[in-house]
Amino acid sequence: MNFIFRGNELLVQETGLELPDAAVCAALSLQPERLQQVWLDNPHIRTTHVPLTTEPPAGYAFLKLRALFSELGERTAVAGRAFQIAEWARTHRYCGVCATPMEPVGHELCMRCPACGMSAYPRISPAMMVLVRKGDSILLARHATYATARHTALAGFVEAGESIEDAIHREVYEEVGLRVTDLRYFGSQSWPFPHSLMIAFTAEYVEGEIRVQEDEIAEAHWYGPGDTLPDIPMRESIAGRLVRANLPAGTSS
């Protein structure tokens, strides 16, 4: 099973979404040793990045990985891991301290510098997500950085020195000007864009009026029983599950 990425796109058959076999890899001049194992105990699942100028072989296409999440079925989690491992291997070819070419450590997923000993492991960036509730209503926001973004829960990366809880309180106040309490864990999901771990919560509104941080949030509104909901995230995402688990009475998606 070979996961070949071009940027944030995955190479799949145009019909059936099958992954490329050894012959396709050979056509792309990808030798087995150039591909990184996704799991060290399974040499049959490999991954790599190819240059952005790479053209797909006949019958194949490079498709956005995010768009494929609802189509890959049981391969979704593996594809997400493969993307993160490929990105790690691509961005750690040289030591960040002394620029010496890095070497893989055989017994674990680690790149180590033979000159200075610096080690680099696959990066994971924790990010909080929180759905704020106010009585029978929920807060949904559309992020400013995506022109076609759906309305979803608030989210943001955890900063150095913060706990998840600290990040929630800071992000909610920064993005929409509200104070919250009663944080309750909902679930988590690996989100390989490029290497996030989404950790989702609900929270109860305490005080404040919505005041959006314009460089982050395009709009934010309360949605209550009977209101018409805007487009919300796909069911395969933790955001989609979080919102659907807390829909006000009389609404649906």
UniProtKB/TrEMBL annotation:
Enzyme class: hydrolase
UniProt superkingdom: Bacteria
Biological-process GO terms, alphabetical: NAD+ catabolic process; NADP+ catabolic process
Database matches in CDD domains: NUDIX_NADH_pyrophosphatase_Nudt13
Cofactor(s), names only, from the UniProt record: Mg(2+); Zn(2+)
Domain Nudix hydrolase, first and last residues per copy: 122-245
Keywords: Hydrolase, Magnesium, Metal-binding, NAD
Assigned GO CC terms: cytosol
A GO term for molecular function: metal ion binding
Alphabetical list of Pfam families matching this protein: NUDIX, Zn_ribbon_NUD
Family named by the database record: Belongs to the Nudix hydrolase family. NudC subfamily.
Protein name: NAD(+) diphosphatase
The organism's taxonomic lineage, starting at the top: Bacteria, Pseudomonadati, Pseudomonadota, Betaproteobacteria, Burkholderiales
